[in-house]
Amino acid sequence: MNSVGHINHGLWAHPRDESHRFNELNYWIDLAKTLERGLFDGLFIADITGTYDVYQNGIDLTLRESIQLPSHDPATLVSAMASVTQNLGFGVTVNLSYETPYQFARRFGSLDHLTQGRIGWNIVTGYLDSAERLIGQKGLKDHDLRYEQAEEFIELCYKFWEGSWENDAVLKDKQKRIFTDPSKVHSIQHHGRFYQSEGVFQVSPSPQRTPVLFQAGASPRGLAFSTRHAECVFIGGDQPEKIKQQVNKIRELAIQQGRQPEDVKIFVGITVVTAETDLLAQQKLAEYIRYASPEAGLAHYSSSVGIDLSKYADDEAIPYQQTNSIASVNHKFKEKKITPNDLKAQHILGGRYPLIVGSGETVAEQLIQLMDETGIDGFNLTRTVAPESHHDFIDFVIPELQQRGRFKTEYHQGSLRNKIFKNGDHLTAQHPAAHFRCQNPKQSKAQQFDLSKQSA
Ligand SMILES: Cc1cc2nc3c(=O)[nH]c(=O)nc-3n(C[C@H](O)[C@H](O)[C@H](O)COP(=O)(O)O)c2cc1C
Fold this sequence. Notes:
By secondary structure, this protein is of the alpha/beta class. Helix content is about 35%, strand content about 15%.
């Protein structure tokens, strides 16, 4: 995240942690170079609009522990990092609830050009009441209604990215004085429940057109959305059996949506602490734990579920309460008895992602086993002490994975989409976005935008 702390709270206070430098461009430039050295597919940047103010009904702890506050706009980082890398992808989170589809599509279309097709969008709808107050809205929309709005938002984005300009519209022909062929640029029309738009998109076709689509919906409505649209799905979970169930469900739902199971890549979030040997890794973990803040993790969790967890005694079962925040996380209180002590034990490094600790060999073996047992495609690796944890993973774990033939030894060519799916730069014909393509110019004749009749 473009912030000090992200998921593993408290580690910012570790003497070797440099995440307090997040507002310096060099911090990100170095990070991008590091990740490309390690042949990472991409850097995923999470984001929230709003602040974590549910725990203890305020933001004191949030400010003291820097729990994603301050946090800055993630998209601003991308051009600088793209300029020092050739292959690293950038998955940027944008909450669509506070964007207009047009301005958003334009920003990401522009980034797809500047990164030469290395941009992805993590589609989120938000879960914080504090955001609603900041934006001047009346309160968080109903969880499922947010996904309804997301469906229309993304459909309109597809129209802009895929439907307004034909592939060969831009000629740049100096002799004939035709920069763009007017017959190949089309006005889009959209009159929906949430959005209205008419006119041509301002961005010419970019390498991928639609950015690589990431999503993490885990509720029934969220899953319906992610399996229809997403190419990369993030899931949580610490038990292989449960992860496998999620994977099977996602692939089944994708098939029901007319897609192929392999059209969706599934990544599980993990935290890794690694060193030269198992013993040194355990010692490193013990050292990290001294700085971690499980309570800050609880404050983050409170906002995720929309329930002030400070109100419950350490050994008291937290009752399920219906909220409009992250439904799938909140439902855990329905499924089993969970106390604040249970949550704190889960947050020993300040975060709730499963923790793998050991030498490069140990970690590589465990990652491979998890992949083989569950059918996931890869991992979303959280940072702990930054940038140390990135260097450790690259130096200790990646070579072990490579030796076992389970990690690439060089980048595949082309756009981020082509690197991930090895099937070209654009979304496939089975994807819902394909429906909005202007494949047949005659068919959209009525919608053509006659540039000669426009004044400016
Ligand atoms: C790995 C991962 C990363 C996520 N990143 C963000 C994020 O950056 N911003 C955000 O608002 N939500 C984020 N979420 C939450 C999801 O958008 C989603 O709300 C959550 O997974 C629950 O799904 P549901 O909304 O269908 O209940 C993330 C979830 C996961 C598993």
